[in-house]
Design a protein that fits this description.
The complex is a heterodimer of chains A (about 100) and B (about 130). Chain A is an alpha+beta fold. Chain A contains 6 helices and 2 strands; from the N terminus they run ααααββαα. Chain A has a single domain, classed as Arc Repressor Mutant, subunit A. Chain A is globular and about 45 Å long. Chain B has helices spanning about 15-25, 65-70, 85-95; strands at about 5-10, 25-35, 35-45, 50-55, 80, 100-105, 110-115, 120-125. Classes of the chains: A alpha+beta (about 100), B alpha/beta (about 130). At the A-B interface, helix 3 and strand 2 of A face helix 2, strand 6 and strand 7 of B.
Chain lengths: ~100, ~130
């Protein structure tokens, strides 16, 4: 999962999926190209999606002839389980 | 040299003619019987002398795997221009058309993608003069 998150293109994919779930590869590429200025090929985006999927952060769902991608943030729980955020941290953040 | 016709590969010409005229609103321009199929074209009522769209049988063995691969990834075979993507989306959804991508603002344009029921995805797009 950490390797999956370490790449800015993959983080942009997660940003776009959090805006709208259930996107096709085509829609994701259009959003990444026009909103993030990422000129990656469809093939490259498809490989990024594979990495995100094996990390459990993206789920691919077949619906008839179409393939849609959904965001799954549950693996991110691991981060706060491993390094819990102290209750006072959110208050302190403002002053830091 | 001029572009006067473009084609879309359809699994059934009769069904395609119904969808492209009755649902999308194009009008039939030519129907010339050629063996078991026809040279079948439609045009936009806004441009009856403009580019014709040929509804071409997808009989070649390579056509279906190609179309299936594009559809799986949500890639439209071609794109048509509309004045208002949202209005067209609402109209087509009302007619039972299945969209794989709802109207999406992507800076230079708003686009949406639907299934033409003949094995293709088609994009509708509205260009914005100011992003």
């Amino acid at each position: 999962m950490f390797r999956a998150l370490a790449d800015p293109t993959r983080r942009a994919i997660l940003d776009e999926l959090s805006e709208r779930d259930g996107q096709t590869l085509f829609e994701l590429c259009a959003r990444l190209g026009t909103k993030h200025g990422l000129g990656s090929s469809r093939q490259a985006i498809s490989q990024h999606l594979d990495v995100l999927e094996s990390a459990g952060l993206v789920r691919t769902r077949r619906e008839g002839r179409y393939k849609f991608h959904d965001l799954d943030t549950t693996p991110l729980q691991e981060i706060t389980q491993r390094w819990p955020i102290p209750k006072s941290a959110s208050k302190n953040k403002e002053s830091r | 040299m001029r572009i006067n016709v473009m084609s879309v590969m359809v699994d059934d010409q009769r069904k395609a003619l119904r969808f492209y005229t009755e649902v999308l609103g194009f009008v039939k321009k030519r129907e010339i019987p050629l063996g078991e199929h026809s040279w079948l074209t439609v045009v936009s009522p806004d441009a009856p002398d403009g580019v014709e769209l040929s509804l071409e049988p997808d009989e070649h063995p390579a056509a279906r795997p190609f179309k299936d691969a594009l559809v799986a990834d949500g890639i439209p075979f071609t794109s048509f221009e509309v004045d208002d993507v949202q209005a067209e989306y609402d109209r087509l959804v009302g007619l039972g058309v299945r969209f794989t991508q709802p109207p999406t603002h992507i800076g230079i344009a708003t686009t949406a993608v639907f299934d033409d029921t003949c094995g293709n995805l088609i994009q509708i797009a509205q260009e914005h003069s100011t992003p």
